[in-house]
Amino acid sequence: MNTISLSIQDMLEDREYGLDLTLLAGETGLSHRLHSSRIQKPGLALTGYTEHLHPDRLQVLGNTEISYLEQLPEDQAIRFIANLCSFPVSCFIVTKGLDPPWFLKLEAEKSGIPLLGTSLQSSTFISLITKFLEERLLPTTNIHGVLVDVLGVGVLLLGKSGIGKSECALDLVIRGHRLVADDVVYIKKKVPAALAGQAGAAIQHLMEIRGLGIINIKDLYGVSSIREKKIIDMVIELLEWDSTQEYDRLGIDDQRYTILGVDLPHLKIPVRPGRNLTSIIEVAARNHLLKGMGYHSAREFQEKLLARMEVRPLGDEVE
Question: Hey, which of 3, 5, 35, 261 has its CA 20 to 30 A from 56?
Fold first, then answer.
């Protein structure tokens, strides 16, 4: 798992979320890094009470905070701000297009604390910045495999190199399913406990087929054959057939595969000539959908079998 952080410079340059940020002071602190998606409105910290100040979080100052500073005697306000800036604050952000007091700009510049401004209302900005930080600071990892969308089920195919993952994915695409990523799947943990997979920008829509080379699925089969991202719902691991190995023939006990702390349903499918892996994967996706509706074929079979075993046949007793 990669430990993710974000610099204030990255946040300032973002245009996707409409944060509308501009630099007002403290340019030397743009390299400060954020590790948490939580923000704080300093409130009492502006009065000198810094007991519960979290300097590692973004400090958002709205109309209330700026008005309070402007109404204080200037020497007192300067003292409070100097005290606040003595902490390693990651960044100040002033909302609503307000012009911060000169002493806030001066102390931020002296302390190397970025002071940013936005035209957005505080509530709107806090909503956007929280979403932005949650998205950018989520745990990520990458895994060697293939991710396909089969009937709306995100299926992550695993297995050693050359076992046939890409060929299975190609056959699924031909059947009308959709490719998300081939070879390397980049995975990001979503709140609260979901995993989203996608391909890297350099290999998006591409697939490697041994003997054929690199092919572009989007160009060959159209936009309906690909997806940019997909929530991973289950993991199917392709294994070489081993006659000495005992494979699950009932499927009563659900196995799990853990990625970034999230447990996913895990199936192990042995590979040998004559087995139609594509059909098996498609059926596995259908069966997963049934389980999501509360229907578990294997367990229902077990319950019926146990119920029949409990019934004693007529004439079984001996006088």
Answer: 261
In single-letter form, the type of residue at position 2 comes to N
| Residue 165 among the catalytic residues | yes
Of the residues 41, 105, 165, 288, which is catalytic? 165
**Domains of the chain, with CATH numbers?**
6-136 (3.40.1390.20), 140-304 (3.40.50.300)
Three-class SS string for 50-95?
A: CCCCCCCCEEEECHHHHHHHHHCCHHHHHHHHHHHHCCCCCEEEEC
pTM: 0.70
CA distances from 109 to 85, 93, 220 (A): 10, 14, 56
Question: Tens digit of pLDDT for each residue in 58-116?
Answer: 999 999 999 999 999 999 999 999 999 999 999 999 999 999 999 999 999 999 999 99
* CA dihedral of 242, 245, 250, 253, whole degrees rounded to 10: -120
Report the distance separating Cα 284 and Cα 302, nearest Å: 19
Say whether 249 is catalytic: yes
- Summarised one tens digit per residue, pLDDT across range 291-312 is 888 877 777 776 777 777 776 5
Residue 275 sits at φ, ψ, to 5 deg, of -90, 130
Is 161 known as a binding-site position? yes
For the segment 195-239, what is each residue's pLDDT rounded down to a tens digit?
999 999 899 999 999 889 999 999 999 999 999 999 999 999 999
- Examine the residue annotation and report whether 268 is marked as an active-site residue of this protein: no
- C-alpha closest to that of 236 among 258, 266, 270: 266
Amino acid identity of residue 214, one-letter, is: I
Residue 163 annotated as binding?
Answer: yes
Mean pLDDT computed over 32-55: 90
**Which residues, listed in sequence order, are joined to residue 256 by a DSSP beta bridge?**
265
